[in-house]
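So, does this match?
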Amino acid sequence: MANTKNSWNNNMKILVFLPRFPFPLNKGDKLRAFNQIKQLAKGNEVYLFALSFKNVETEHIKQVKAFCKDVHIEKLRLFPLLLSLLKNLFTRLPLQVSLFTTYKSKKNFLHYYNDVRSDSIYFQFVRSGQYAKYIKDNGIHTPKMVLDFQDCLSMNMLRRANVSSFFVKTILMQEVKRLRKYENKMFSIFDSTTIITSQDRDCIISSRRNEIEIVENGVEEAYFSYPKNADIVFDIIFSGNMSYKPNVVAAKFLVEKIMPLVWKTFPDITVCLAGSNPTKEVLALQSDKVTITGWVDDMKQYYARSRIFIAPMQIGTGLQNKLLEAMAMSLPCITTSLANAALRSIHGRDVLVGDNEMELAKHILSLLQDETLRQKIAESGNKFVKENYSWQTSTQKLERLLK
């Protein structure tokens, strides 16, 4: 049961369904889910039903249970998932959905809901669609159901396809078609839908996409108040889950394309690629000038010891939490138009924006050479995030939808 320090005032009983357990905070969707649960728990009873492909550590469960009345972890087994995948291979169901859905897991979720009898259910990602449909088809009482698209998964998949080999691209393009149809179907299953940015909302192929509510991400207060370290260890830092394809592509682009242009002027500049599960491609980038950290317990410690943050995103969708965190830490930030479209910051005031290696290298050199510019971008970026991105404000909007 939940930590006794919480005060349950029975304002609303909310069941949260997640396709991944929301701790540790090594992925953007986990960070969003954890902070939303934390905010929702302030005035409601929150129950969590989370899928997991592996055993969840006791300490990680404890972190989440502090904000939940009860937590249920549904372990997904490989063999039933493969059967589900084969069964749906010749249907219109996306592989993304099949890989997270079995008959047993749907049935167990229905049982859990019947025990909890929540006022509403909050689902994350279109991967959850079959679970919501199962409740709707079999539930004795149908609660208010809200889906968080997070981002436009079909567009994300399309961008991955465009940088993949011919064989992989062929498979991914088929998945794009299925996802587009499935995303459109969500409006007939759920009462309300949310997404992080208007840019991703515009990518949903549906005549009803304007019904999707924008519920943005936020930044934890600890990032704004964390002390800056006077001893700089890294000149450039890029962070994120280093097994996530958009981050892998960005890391390679930074080290192989951008930095050689910077090193021509400043040969001793150091780079830090900070984040969990680095792939072989990322590990191969390590050198005397490039540090690969792997899992980091507290990213704030690395931001505090860095001079400049860069997110040279080439593919992917959605708001980059890494940018919000770095700006909140008063790091001068550089990114691409792709990432800034969701962030909505002003180039030259809050961040510096470039779209190729020449522009991005030029921005790095400008910040390295001009301390006044570094300070200006850092202060303005910090103010921009503080005024526009709050977990408390965004979750209040979600709470209204759940009611």
